[in-house]
Amino acid sequence: MTPALPSVLIVDDDVDFAHAAADFARTRGFRATLAHSIEESRQLIGRDGADLMLLDLELPDGSGFDLLDELDLAHHNGRVAIVTGTPSIESAARAVSMPVVDYLIKPLCPVQFEALLADARARTPRPLPSAFGGLIGECDAMQGIVRDLCKVAPTPASVLITGESGTGKELIARAVHEQSARRGKFVAVNCGAIAPELLASHLFGHERGSFTGAANRHIGYFEQAHQGTLFLDEITEMPPGLQVYLLRALETGQITRVGGLDSIDVNVRIVAATNRDPERAIDEGRLREDLFYRLADFIVTMPPLRARGDDVLLLAQAFVDRLNTQSGQRKRLAPDAHRVLLQHSWPGNVRELRSAIQRAYVLSDGDTVKLAMPGRRVAPMHHDDTTVMFTVGMTYAEIEREMLLKTLARFNHDKTQTARALGVSVRTIHNQLARLDDDARDGSDA
Ligand SMILES: Nc1ncnc2c1ncn2[C@@H]1O[C@H](COP(=O)(O)OP(=O)(O)OP(=O)(O)O)[C@@H](O)[C@H]1O
Ligand SMILES: [Mg+2]
Fold it and tell me: Coiled-coil annotation: which residues (predicted)?
């Protein structure tokens, strides 16, 4: 996904100067926006911030310092350069006393401007490499997520990712690790897929003989993720008692193996995920509030695919391209595919899309990939979310898949409730979802 260009905001009532500066910045790969008053600049800063702001002092509706007083400079990510035509010792002294503020005098010398831009560019996070799990998305929400994560990833901040099933939470978790430059491994633990009574020893490890069946010492996920990232998926499925231990480990940076006595230092960055609403999970007693605050230095909310506009088209095309590359074929999406893609609500999100493309690709005879959407094929006359219609000719795998996705959607992607409704374990749900992923992946590896 292409991240936004570094940005410069030029706040100056001298329209000619502002335009000249904007053009200068644009030719150097910046996105430039202009404001001619404090009021206008306020709106622009609120909307998308700026990596660099050129700020005039005498503006029609006040002094540039008024704007600086409003900005919380200590937490402002961008740099501010005051560029004034009416310099004074007083204003220079005031500017110099503020963090991240430069003081320059008009006419602005190109060499100085160039240096400011170079500095802003250097501080703008690196674009996400495409190797990063192939995260695709250009809608504002996804761009915003990537922009924020570029800033958060290199810090030790914990990250909590929420969002429906199949929205890419794990992909994001891996991306955070890859962008973090942490030396250790990325270790993923699905708290909902491990029997609760075994979770402690999986996380913290155990000493030989610490319980029946513990024949050997076992190094837990925490130690495996030392200097790296521990991804705690489905965090709300962790028993509350264990959440207490987890919190203690995070606060002290130390763990003790089950059946052991020694405290072991661990340096682990935590990324957690859930498809529940964290606040509700707290109310329901599934997530301890104190742990939540420790996990949620930064919260990422993955939008459902149906709220990502044309991203569904980009993703579909990317999946077809990938399949073409891997199979050496040159199939194309049918001309009416976009209509189908945009109409379906994708309750299983990107995972569902990926499987649908995969299936259509394999089934298409010629070079045209025709999409028979589950929504159309399964229940053309049932627009409620509670009915699934099976037609003769569908495979059991297809029936299982439809039932799973519809039930997940019906229960708001709550896997525990879905499992209960389907009469299977949460683990089975996870396995089925993983299988859908694998099917898509196998197909793409074909
Ligand atoms: N933006 C994206 N670009 C490309 N592929 C994506 C994107 N988002 C998700 N995928 C793919 O969709 C599938 C599901 O993503 P992922 O496993 O990260 O979802 P999840 O939110 O963790 O789901 P669950 O809650 O069910 O665990 C994966 O195969 C992933 O690679
Ligand atoms: Mg996941």
Answer: none
Q: CA-CA distance, 220 to 230, in Å (whole number)?
A: 11
398-433: pLDDT as tens digits: 788 888 888 888 888 888 889 998 989 888 888 888
Q: What is the pLDDT of residue 115?
A: 86
Residue 120 pLDDT? 82
Ligand 1 pocket residue status of 350, Cβ below 6 Å: yes
Coil/strand/helix, residue 215: coil
Helix (H, G, I), strand (E, B) or coil at 446: coil
- Longest CA span, the chain: 85
Q: Structural domains in the chain?
A: 7-123 (3.40.50.2300), 140-301 (3.40.50.300), 305-445 (1.10.8.60)
For residue 269, which phi and psi values (nearest 5 degrees)?
-95, 130
**Whether the predicted pLDDT of 267 surpasses 70:** yes
Q: How far is the CA of 404 from the centre of ligand 1 (A)?
A: 16
Residue 68: other Cβ atoms inside 10 A: 20
How remote is the CA of residue 346 from the centroid of ligand 1, in Å?
Answer: 13
Please report how the helices 415-422 and 426-445 are oriented relative to each other, as an axis angle in degrees rounded to 10: 100
Span 387-396, pLDDT tens digits: 776 766 677 8
